[in-house]
Amino acid sequence: MEMKKLGRVTAFSRGISLLSCAAVGGKQEGEGPLGHHFDEIDTDSFLGCDSWEQAESELQRRALQHALRKGGMTMEDLDTVLTGDLLNQCIGGSFALRNEPLAVAGLYSACATMGEGLVLSSLLIAGGAMKRAAVMASSHFCAAERQYRMPLPYGSQRSPTAQWTATAAGCCLLGREGDGPYLTHAILGRIVDMGITDPTNMGAAMAPAAIDTLTALFQDTHTKPQDYDLIVTGDLGAVGHGIVADLMGRDGFLMDERYTDCGLLLYDRKKQDMHAGGSGAGCSASVLCAYLLEGIKGRRWKKIIFAPTGALLSPTTTFQKESIPAVCHAVVLSAER
Amino acid sequence: MEMKKLGRVTAFSRGISLLSCAAVGGKQEGEGPLGHHFDEIDTDSFLGCDSWEQAESELQRRALQHALRKGGMTMEDLDTVLTGDLLNQCIGGSFALRNEPLAVAGLYSACATMGEGLVLSSLLIAGGAMKRAAVMASSHFCAAERQYRMPLPYGSQRSPTAQWTATAAGCCLLGREGDGPYLTHAILGRIVDMGITDPTNMGAAMAPAAIDTLTALFQDTHTKPQDYDLIVTGDLGAVGHGIVADLMGRDGFLMDERYTDCGLLLYDRKKQDMHAGGSGAGCSASVLCAYLLEGIKGRRWKKIIFAPTGALLSPTTTFQKESIPAVCHAVVLSAER
After folding, report:
1. Chains A and B: how many Cβ contacts under 8 Å?
2. Residues of B in contact with A128 (CB under 8 A)
3. What's chain A's average pLDDT?
4. Per-residue pLDDT tens over the stretch A29-54
């Protein structure tokens, strides 16, 4: 498999095949506009487990099972699972894969974890280090709220710029051979920090990282936004989406109606009270695995950019008045090689 | 670069070159038996920063700078940095690399992070996805204590099986070309959980993961412990080291005096009150970068196994009475290709 370095971007001459994918979501995700695209919606926030953290692991376990089943594969067909989540010490993925016969690489890029996994796994597969890999990521609203913000029973108010952490997991199986969709380009992001300090406005903090990665992608591949049918960042929400559209436009990259964001796709912001939109590692992962890849398969879109973003803060750094570093990893997904 | 799959192990026919490495440590690490091997010892636990978390980032920044300087390189010579640590949301690495011109892959394998980084980067380099990468990991005693256990001023008692989180970072630069030492074999671990629930005895929880990975390495490469000059797990400490030696012996793999552990090497357990030994992502990373690679370069050892172990628990999983999953990633390091 030939790889070509174009500046910061790696191009795969034959494309890495996305063999199968699946997404599992919670009640709010089921009620959103993408609800019917999910492989499974569980309206029990505990998913039959004893805690929300265990439920988040269960989301990953089920997403992997659905992806394997839909691809006609078993765990033995996979070389490695790359997984990550937002919980402290990344327990979502680690506990999901306890005692499974699978080599595991733990990832952390906050809400951009699915992007990091896709980039790393495609590079590993293209280079011949593995034949097939699974990439997955998750988040859980209730587990995230009590870890990052307030225990849910406090019923604390949310700022209008705040986003809603998705209760969802997405899992993607990638391989050297297959009928597509294909991953044709990959770029790993740099850590960008423009000094934003408001943890209830992470869209603004992450927008500069998205701009950095998207600009490099367009420049290094000599393409423009109009060469793609859809450009999806995530999870910038309404605030970050607006900043990216504005600033990219000023730099000569016209981000028109083909530009959207996973945080804007997952929920109906008019009917569901999600403020600036969705977020969480499970947001971009499930939007990709429930909706975007299906759309490419169905030829609704031929070529898209999937560019999940992550805010690399922690409650501790916020207490210490640090600004918020962010990262954006991106891949080009295409119906054809 | 040819890669060969031997069961779960990947063998590199020409070896991946370890171009440069560096380690930075704190006061206790400086007073330990490896103290004079470190590139820098800073006896100020804050390293001139305002918090211990910021100090941990500073450890990584300095380790990267030393490794680049010793290798005669700049950041522009690197394709990617793979980094991880134990802090919630992996802020040690993310904040160390803010606004640097470097693509970043965030990792999480707890104290086995250096192992995960070496395995992934060697696979990526061998496959042609990148030419040169940096791998780094860190931990900080004071930041870890207050995050995982008790605020330091409480002066709480420690159990005799407990280990001491190292205040240290190690950074390794790897590349396709170079004069060695060489990384010749790599294996990514599975997540093993034998039901241990005591978070003050993580050596016992991690030992089964080390046994799983070491057994696969010996079997798949048709080697035995006596084919290596040194076998170093980490950070099992005294308790876990004993379990691995015992159980591997029963399975026919005689782990004699050539078997040791990063947690036993870093401190003088008689003079320094470190209970069962060292631990933390910075323990195995700094023992590798300060001591082990230097020993291979100096031909003290020709061929060693470096097999860092990680306990994938969090305080939340402990409160929820979960058992402790663990992982062990391993590489073979050799003076010759």
Report:
1. 187
2. 3, 127
3. 96
4. 999 999 999 999 999 999 999 999 99
B147 and B199 share one domain: no
Residue at which a domain ends, from B144, B175, B206? B175
- Position A63 pLDDT exceeds 90: yes
Mean pLDDT for B134-157 is 91
- CB count, 10 Å around CB of A55? 23
> Count of alpha carbons within 13 Å of A195, Cβ hemisphere only?
0
CB A52 within 8 A of CB A142: yes
Choosing from B175, B198, B230, the residue where a domain stops is B175
Token digits of residue A210: 């998205």
Using the Cβ of A106 and the Cβ atoms of chain B, whether some distance falls under 8 Å is answered with yes
Torsional sign, CA A225, A226, A232, A237: positive
Whether B12 shows a pLDDT value over 70: the answer reads: yes
| Average pLDDT score, chain B | 96
Range of the domain at B152: 3-175
Q: Which of A328, A44, A21, A268 is nearest to A167 (CA)?
A: A44
Distance from CA of A124 to the nearest CA of B (A): 6
> What single-letter amino acid sits at A203?
G
A126 at the B interface (CB within 8 A)?
Answer: yes
- Could you write out the three-class secondary structure of A235-260? CCHHHHHHHHHHHHHHCCCCCCCCEE
* Predicted complex ipTM: 0.97
B326: which strand partners? Answer: B192, B311
Which structure tokens are listed for B294?
């230097």
Query: What is the number of domains present in chain A?
Result: 1
Does the beta-carbon distance from A315 to B88 stay under 8 Å? yes
What is the pairing mode between strands B259-261 and B230-234?
Answer: parallel
Q: Name which of A287, A10, A118 is nearest A296 in CA terms.
A: A287
Q: Count the Cβ atoms, other than its own, within 10 Å of residue A217.
A: 25
Residues 6+ apart with CB under 8 A from A290: A23, A25, A34, A37, A38, A39, A170
Gap between the terminal Cα atoms of chain B: 12
Give the pLDDT band (50/70/90) at residue A160. Answer: confident
What is the reported pLDDT for B154?
84
Question: What pLDDT, in 10s, does the model give residues A112-150?
Answer: 999 999 999 999 999 999 999 999 999 999 999 999 988
- Chain A neighbors of B120, CB-CB under 8 A: 105, 120, 124
| CATH assignment at residue A71 | 3.40.47.40
**Could you tell me if B166 and B289 lie in one domain?**
no
Residues B136, B224, single domain; the answer is no
DSSP β-bridge partners for residue A21: A172
Is there a contact between B188 and A80 if contact means CB atoms under 8 Å apart? yes
The answer to whether B107 contacts A103, with C-beta atoms less than 8 Å apart, is no
Tell me the one-letter amino acid at B308: P
> How many Cβ atoms sit within 10 Å of the Cβ of residue B229?
17
Q: Residue B101, class by beta-carbon neighbours within 10 Å (0-12 exposed, 13-18 middle, 19+ buried)?
A: exposed
